[in-house]
Amino acid sequence: MIIAPKIRGFICTTAHPEGCAKHVAEQIAVVKSRGLIENGPKKVLVIGSSTGYGLSSRIAAAFGANAATIGVFFERPGEADRTATAGWYNTRAFELEAAAAGLYARSFNGDAFSYAVKAEVIAAVKADFGQVDLVIYSLASPRRTDPKTGEVYKSVLKPIGETYTNKNLNTTTGVVNEVSIEPAEGDDIEQTVAVMGGQDWELWTDALLEAGVLADGVQTVAYSYIGPEVTWPVYKNGTIGRAKEDLERVQRALDAKLAPLHGKAWVSVNKALVTQASSAIPVVPLYISLLYKAMKAEGTHEDCIEQMDRLLRDRLYNGNPQPDEAGRIRIDDWEMAPALQALLDERWKLVNTENFAELGDFEGYQSSFLRLFGFGLSGVDYSADSDPSVGIPSLAS
Ligand code: NAD
Can 115 be counted among the known catalytic residues? Predict the structure, then answer.
């Protein structure tokens, strides 16, 4: 089948197997060009390993440190006439590249929030690794089923207390308009915290601890975002921000639980980047477009892979993680540099549909978005026939 992008709002409902493979190969090349991560992780579990930050974490660990990896994700396989989700093809490509490099890689497709998937993955860790020395927690999901009660929690992206109105980008047309988001109501905050907070990270860590599969000196990391004040009402001070506060609460609890193993839990604050999760947040895509333009101009732009390489190479495994006053790792440091933020603040006030092409990187935003689904990569023949039903080697039974 000939596969083309089909964009519906902020999602693309198709994905390209060869394009996703090229995207993965390009990320591997970035990591390899930077050389071996000295004393890096050896046996790594990545929860949410198929797209975005989790995929790049897996690639950085495997191809930067020759780590064996187990990945967990929730993706849809393809059929003869329907493409898989991008994370499926990404994982297939990752496994094929890992095998070619002689690296162990095994994957699990299922609901990471469930007890069943945790048990299955932990059995594999025990059998194949004995113990893991790094656990990355990189889930982003709109909902979570409570494994105990069966209740389904839904995460919302809303301000708290009052309606928030700000500039917004129509990512299809490039029109800069305004959006108003009504404040959280009812149990919106609790529901969002139950999905995107730290509860499930803690359940995973408890289960791994109980099974005795965490190595001495283990590190575990979950990802957060802070960003500039213009986005605070919908991010840092909104429902999702409450969930990220909960992540920090759990980080402190996990630190205590891991202390007997000389282990450490971290929250890493990452840069705003185009991913499937971030493109759904109002206001943020306009900010990202301005950010990309300015960071590309000053030569500091990074994508997920450069961020994750820096996290492992310059923070987690160089003996100098440089935590901030709250104990968080800050690889959003270049994004949050005061001079850059002052420039972005100025541009935010000025930006409108007419000057957006000049102030923002719309082309960069759109191409980054398409690349998430394997479209627009150089060297891929998009007019060629492609088999959408290809499998993931470790999932083939
Ligand atoms: P993403 O949508 O690209 O990745 C989400 C991953 O979670 C995928 O691998 C998906 O398969 C997996 N997943 C979702 N539900 C699952 C389930 N029930 N069971 C198993 N796997 C499931 O998202 P992302 O942007 O890489 O986000 C990852 C983390 O990074 C989030 O905590 C997010 O808040 C954080 N973060 C993102 C940004 C950004 O700008 N994108 C910035 C800073 C921090």
Answer: no
148 vs 36: CA distance, rounded Å: 42
Using alpha carbons, list the distances in angstroms from residue 19 to 297, 371, 379: 27, 8, 9
- How far are the Cα atoms of 51, 170, 250, 335 from residue 257, in angstroms, in the given order? 29, 45, 10, 32
Residue 99: which of 56, 69, 131, 134 has the closest Cα? 69
CB of 232 shorter than 6 A to ligand 1: no
Atom of ligand 1 nearest to the CA of 53: 26
Determine the Cα–Cα distance for residues 162 and 269; give it in Å rounded to an integer.
26
Amino acid code (one letter) for 275: T
Domain covering 7-388 in this structure, CATH number: 3.40.50.720
Ligand 1 centroid distance, CA of 48 (Å): 6
**Beta carbon of 227 within 6 Å of any ligand 1 atom:** no
**End-to-end Cα distance, the chain:** 25
Query: Is residue 54 lining ligand 1, measured as CB closer than 6 Å?
Result: yes
Query: What is this structure's pTM?
Result: 0.98
Residue 171 tokens, joined: 């990512």
Closest atom of ligand 1 to 276 CA is 2
Report mean pLDDT in 10-residue bins for the chain, 397 residues. Answer: 93 97 98 97 98 98 98 98 98 98 98 98 98 98 97 97 96 93 98 98 98 98 97 96 98 98 98 90 94 98 98 97 98 98 98 97 96 98 98 91
Residue 396's pLDDT is what? 86
